[in-house]
Every structure is written in structure tokens, then in C-alpha cells.
Specification:
about 200 residues; alpha+beta; Glutaredoxin; Glutathione S-transferase Yfyf (Class Pi), Chain A, domain 2; 5-stranded mixed β-sheet; 9 helices; about 55% helix; about 10% strand; binds glutathione
Length: about 200
């Protein structure tokens, strides 16, 4: 294996945060774009839990949690504050985000109520960015793909909310060169395909 292999799915926020760390460090990987309903056999062999992202290192180590991929690539140990925001994002916010976006997949869910619950996190994040505008790049990258997903569900509504700091922070991230590289499109990987090296600025 010439390079570590990253199984990824372009639109997945967990895969996005992993790819952002890879872009930041120019940590070269072989990118294998996955379609979730047609997961590659090799990915399922190395990581039977079947979620993306998965990073397979040259020594055979498999890292199958997005945050652990970030920590490995960035050599990042989380501060207490970073841990706090990531837990709120991954547990509380993601829970309501899923129910806001896909209310029909759950029983007895009201999407507006779910949006309100999710908004509590965003209002707190807005306050955090107001009182302390600096935020580590790693933390920012771990969070913004999820806020992007929430914002995109009803962009007009999102833009009309009183969270100007969140809005500015999200815009800066979405317009960054790093995010453009992160979101480059790749076709589904099929075993035997030529290696797709990532990040690549070609
Ligand atoms: N805790 C995992 C979650 C990853 C995850 O749930 N990824 C989604 C795609 S966004 C997935 O692979 N879902 C599998 C499925 O939908 O069957 C991580 O942080 O990497």
C-alpha cells in the first residue's frame, strides 16, 4: 500500500471533517469515494461497522471514527473546551439536526420543534464566537460541516436568525480554499480503479 487509504463520502459531515484535517496537513491519502448503499467489500472487511470515514494506515491500523482520524492527522489532543463543543455537536445538535431534516424517519417528531432544540446549540455557539472570536482551526473544522447541513435545509430561515457570528464563521469556512479542495468531486471508487490522490490541487 503506497498511501494511507481514506474511505469517504463527499456529502457526509463526518467525512468532511476528516478530509478538512487531511487538507490542512496536506496528509496525502488514496481517496476512495463510497456510495453508502453500495459499500466496497474491502471497506467492510477492514471496518465492518460500515460507516464513513475510515482511514486505513500503511501499517494496517484502521481508524473508523472521524474525530480520531482528525486527531491522528493533526496530532491533536482536545482541550476541555474543544471536547465540550464537540460533544454538544455530535450528541445534542446532530440528534436534532437529523430529526429536523428527516422528520418522517422518526416517530412523533415535529420538525419545527427539532429546529428550535438545535438552535439552542447555535445560539450558544454564537455567544461563544461573540465573547471569544478566536476558535482553533481543528475545532472549527470538526463543527462547521454539521452547521452547514443544518443551514442548507432552509437557508432563508437560517440567514434570518440572530446568530451573526455563526453566520460569519460559517461563511468564512464555506468560502475557504481548504473547503473547496475538501469538496472536490470524485466518482465512486471501484476496486481496480487508478489511485485518486487526495488532497490534490489539480
Ligand atoms: N461516529 C462516526 C459516524 C459516521 C457516520 O455515521 N457516517 C455516516 C455517513 S454521514 C454513515 O456512514 N452512515 C452509514 C449508513 O448510513 O449506513 C464518525 O464520527 O465517523
Amino acid at each position: 500500500m503506497a498511501l494511507p487509504v481514506l474511505y469517504s463520502f463527499r456529502r457526509c459531515p463526518y467525512a468532511m471533517r476528516a478530509r478538512m484535517s487531511i487538507v490542512r496537513m496536506n496528509f496525502q491519502v488514496e481517496l476512495r469515494e463510497v456510495i453508502l448503499r453500495d459499500r466496497p467489500e474491502h471497506m467492510m472487511e477492514v471496518s465492518p461497522k460500515g460507516t464513513v470515514p475510515v482511514l486505513l494506515l500503511e501499517d494496517g491500523t484502521v481508524i473508523e471514527e472521524s474525530l480520531e482520524i482528525m486527531q491522528h492527522v493533526l496530532d491533536w489532543s482536545l482541550s476541555e473546551e474543544e471536547q465540550h463543543w464537540i460533544s454538544r455537536n455530535d450528541d445534542e445538535f446532530k440528534y436534532h439536526l437529523d430529526r429536523y431534516k428527516y422528520p418522517n424517519r422518526y416517530e412523533d417528531v415535529d420538525e419545527v420543534e427539532q429546529r428550535t432544540f438545535a438552535s439552542a446549540y447555535l445560539m450558544d455557539l454564537d455567544q461563544r464566537l461573540d465573547t471569544e472570536p478566536s476558535i482553533s482551526e481543528a475545532l472549527s473544522d470538526a463543527l462547521f460541516p454539521f452547521v452547514r447541513q443544518f443551514a442548507n435545509h432552509d437557508r432563508d430561515w437560517f440567514d434570518a436568525q440572530p446568530w451573526s457570528h455563526v453566520l460569519g464563521w460559517l461563511t468564512d469556512n464555506l468560502e475557504s480554499e481548504a473547503f473547496k479542495l475538501c469538496m472536490k468531486k470524485h466518482k465512486q471508487w471501484i476496486d481496480g480503479d487508478a489511485v485518486v490522490q487526495f488532497p490534490s490541487n489539480r
